[in-house]
Amino acid sequence: MPSSEYHPPPVFSTVRIVSLLSSLLVALASGTNYVFSAYGPQLGARLHLSHTQLNVIGLSGNIGVYGTAPLWGKLVDAKGPRILLVIGFVFLLSGYLGIRHLYDVGLPEGVADLSTVAFGALVLCGFMTGIGGNGGLASSMNVTAKSWPDRARATTTGLVLSGFGLSAFLFSTLAHIFYPGDTSEFLLLLAIGTSFPMVWGFFFVRHIPLPHSELTHSALEHGHARSESATRILARENNSTTHLLKDNDDVTHEDEDEADGAMSASVEFYPRSATHHHQAEASDYVVPRSPGAVALSPTRSSGNRNRSRGSFSVSRSRSRVRGVGIGIGADGLPNMRGMALAVNRNFWLLFTITSLLSGTGIMYINNVGSISQALYAEHSVEYDEVESAQLQALQVSTISIMNCVGRIGIGIIADITKNYFKLPRSFCISLVASLFVISQVAVYNVEHVNNLWKASALLGVAYGSLFGLFPTITIEWFGLPHFSENWGFVSLSPMIGGNIFSIAFGRNLDAHAPSDSAAAPSSSSTSSIVSTATAAITSTVISSSTLTTRGGLPSDHQCLQGRICYADSLKMTIFACCFALLLALYAGWIDRHSVKGHGRALLPESESETEVLWEEEEE
Q1: What is 14-209+345-539+550-596's CATH number?
Q2: Which SUPFAM superfamilies does the UniProt entry name for this protein (predicted)?
Q3: pLDDT digits over 65-97, tens only?
Q4: Phi then psi for 532, rounded to 5 degrees?
Q5: Rounded-to-integer distance, Cα 231 and Cα 396, Å
């Protein structure tokens, strides 16, 4: 009789690698929000949009990406990747075709400004592209994170995320080769090129269970690092109840229920054999090596495999956070979600760092085209639209390529940091924050457009490193079972920093444009939300230098003063990145402390006390 036992494929199997490469293809089609600067200025020139309006449209795509992250994360955790790939196909195709239609129609005869309805439609289409892009990214990230072992997880997720970062370069290069200077055809390329890879992903992006040996290796490794927070003993065949380590009478049936429930959840999550025999093998029990783990009885014989609650011994933490468990699964690994996440200080630490750094990156990426135009206009007697567009595309391509490099590089660095130097991956957060500080100082000191690519390269590496590292930190701190949902909540943070910094940048740029054209969209709710936070920026005093008329300018809203047009915004982001660096150093310190203290720092505020019991139900 043939065995019905299921054997997951090896780590480096064909099916797993095909799924990884398909996830990379989907990610390549999902990151086109970064290409906005390649067509945004042309869109603004044709539809007479101010820089503030352009930032609102660009931000609508980012809000679509980050605003749907928790919902899409929960959906892919529960239902798998296919439903999100369908969503990605529909929304990407519809969003870019909508933007193309509005661009082709242009302004009606004799109308100087875009109507409120048309502007709202542009914002909606941008929002749809963000929704679709995040559908593809969430599905590919979830599959990759759960299909590869912890020792290679940062590298593989970084590889997939590198595709997301390389997306802008890919599409801008294709447009430059096949449709040079044709914005309408570029938008059509985006519509088709982003939606149809989702169809491929529908068939080939799927979860591949990990081999049992990899699950055991992962649990043992984490158990060694955080043994006192999650030590348990599976003891059998004894007729007594023995307290170890300390005397304590506070063990309740509620504790027992929680321990059994946690074990059940763990067993449901990890792939298992299809046969009962394999499930009952002693090798399936993972017992972390720890000075606190004491075996009191031999493993039960193969003929006696039925466990009762009385014969199940497990460590229990007395830590409680307003009725919420401490977020440690029965396998000793973090397993946190919902309210346990909301009351965890490390979540808010990661949320704040992400908001400050990603907000800086989004501001620059959405406005690098305008920065390039401002620097070019300052040093050009006649404004050459073709040359300006080439310099603009150079910045987008540079950011995209270095974004890809940063995502791959930080994954490798993070794995080396953990596997070879035995340090937490969170130490790399300080490296990422430092790159952001350096990039913003570099942008501030650029005075000629020919040197702007250097600052763009630094920003690209920093931004790619941020989103290459932080998903892995989310897994380490809060667990893998609800990774996509938890990362979705962390991903809400860029909406805060991105909105504030980008709108402030746009208003600052408009403030330095000729006074008769520095108009902002009065109907924009996004602008009104951040108007208070950006009051200091908007009140910037325009330099007294005379604005000379330049021929061939693409928009009446063009600032001609070079770096002065946006310098105040960069001062804001430099300060924000320095503050994020301080928080990053603190994050590395507490995580290092948690490793030395066996997991205490990453648990909720209250101290945890571990108790190891051996219990046997009375006959």
Answers
A1: 1.20.1250.20
A2: MFS general substrate transporter
A3: 989 999 999 999 899 999 999 999 999 999 999
A4: -65, -45
A5: 50
Half-sphere exposure of 537 (CA within 13 A, CB side): 26
Q: Residue 252 has what pLDDT? A: 44
Sheet order of strands, 316-317 included: 242-244, 610-614, 316-317
**Whether 566 contacts 505, CB under 8 Å:** yes
**DSSP state at residue 228:** G
Entry pTM = 0.65
Which two three-digit tokens encode residue 336? Answer: 């946190």
CB–CB of 56/503 below 8 Å?
Answer: yes
Amino acid at 400: S
Q: Could you tell me where in the chain the CATH 1.20.1250.20 domains are found?
A: 14-209+345-539+550-596
Give the pLDDT confidence of 6-53 residue by residue, as tens digits. 677 887 889 999 999 999 999 999 989 888 888 888 898 899 998 889
**Residue from 69, 58, 100 nearest 527 by CA:** 58
Burial status of residue 317 (CB atoms within 10 A of its CB: 0-12, 13-18, 19 or more): buried
Closest to 541 in 3D by CA, of 568, 523, 502: 568
Residue partners of 261: CB distance under 8 A and separation at least 6: none
Helix (H, G, I), strand (E, B), or coil: what is residue 310? helix
